[in-house]
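Trying the structure run again after the queue cleared.
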Amino acid sequence: MSDLKILFVEDEPALAEIVKESLESKGFIVFHVTTIAEGLHTHVSNKFDMLILDVMLPDGDGFSLLKKIRLKDLTTPALFLTSKSLAADVVMGFESGANDYLKKPFSMEELIIRIRSLLGIVSTRPINDLKKTGLFAIGEYVFHYPEGILVYKGAKKQLTFREAEILYMLQIRHEQMVLRQELLHAHWGNDDYFSGRSLDVFITKLRKYLKQDPSIAILNFRGQGYKLIF
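Done. Tokens:
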């Protein structure tokens, strides 16, 4: 694990020191900065395996920081650490491109478990193939995963970050069932009723995007998961 690099953006000195030291003791390489400007500069200058971002920063908010990062980086998992606990804030965090959201105060044990979970999800990706082309054939469609673009006979459809991530998980394991709970925890951080309804909406959208090729289907195994076939 010693080669896994984390970009950590947090302006509270005491908390930052505790988190940084704890993660480094687990073998992570931690780049700690305190502002959006430093975060953007550091992200451009390095290749990270994980992003940990505070929301309230001296020069803006972490939501806007992640949105800027997602313009060029759709794949690196991101986790927000924040004292903002309103439902609207949580939704805003995920809509900005986050994979998880941890409310302060938190235990280091919980943070490390979440980091390992996110890195475990990402580690299943065919990194070498993505570096070569980033293209996946889904029936008559071509899926440009890093850019989140779905192409059918020259017509392009720009997917949202979460649409692209869900389709990616289904595609790399096509012909296999992807557990509903796995999708929910990967993209919403929980498996409650509202997250489940949101997942249903995303699956409906993906089916609509793929309907031009009748050989493609996203099968629903009620209460269990989904399978992409083509």
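The first helix runs from residue 13 to 25. Worth checking whether this holds up in the mutant runs.
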